[in-house]
Predict the 3D structure of the following.
Amino acid sequence: MITFKSMRYSILLVLFSTTLAVAGESPTRGEDLFEKSCAACHSIIAENGRLIAGNGRDNAPNLNDLTERAPGSDSSYRYGVSLASYSAQTPRWDQEAFVAYVMDPTGFLRSRLGDRRARSRMAYRVRYEADAIDLYAFILETQNR
Ligand code: HEC
């Protein structure tokens, strides 16, 4: 029988897990999101050639060591001009820039470059900030593998 008390418990449980999903950065969840939403274009390939995530596709930059390197610095990928000019402004992808970029690549470049005609060649947007944060946590974690 569903009592009022047990209902109250499940409501509390739902609230608790939602809070966890928002507050805690989850690399595991980030990995799922990466395989679902990013791997169609991106892979993470270690310097020694080992495939860490994705399908080994190379129609988009390799996201290996992303949080330690400058935007637009995968030498085997030909970036769009806007991302290439943004690269000169900043030494690395920090969490804040990454989150803003993946949620709106073209809007991000327009605001950072102060150029209304700037464009990203990445035709994908992450909808939720919490997802972008988990994706960053996952990419950060792959750097220790
Ligand atoms: C439809 C293909 C596509 C998908 C899907 C995609 N990207 Fe991209 N991404 C690109 C391309 C192309 C670029 C290069 C953009 C440019 O040159 O302007 C890029 C660039 C990037 C960069 C900058 C890389 C660098 O070397 O500075 C990051 C970070 C990034 N993507 C993250 C993601 C994440 C995280 C996801 C999944 C949520 C994702 N992308 C999904 C195509 C894609």
In short: The CA atoms of residues 40 and 123 lie 12 Å apart.
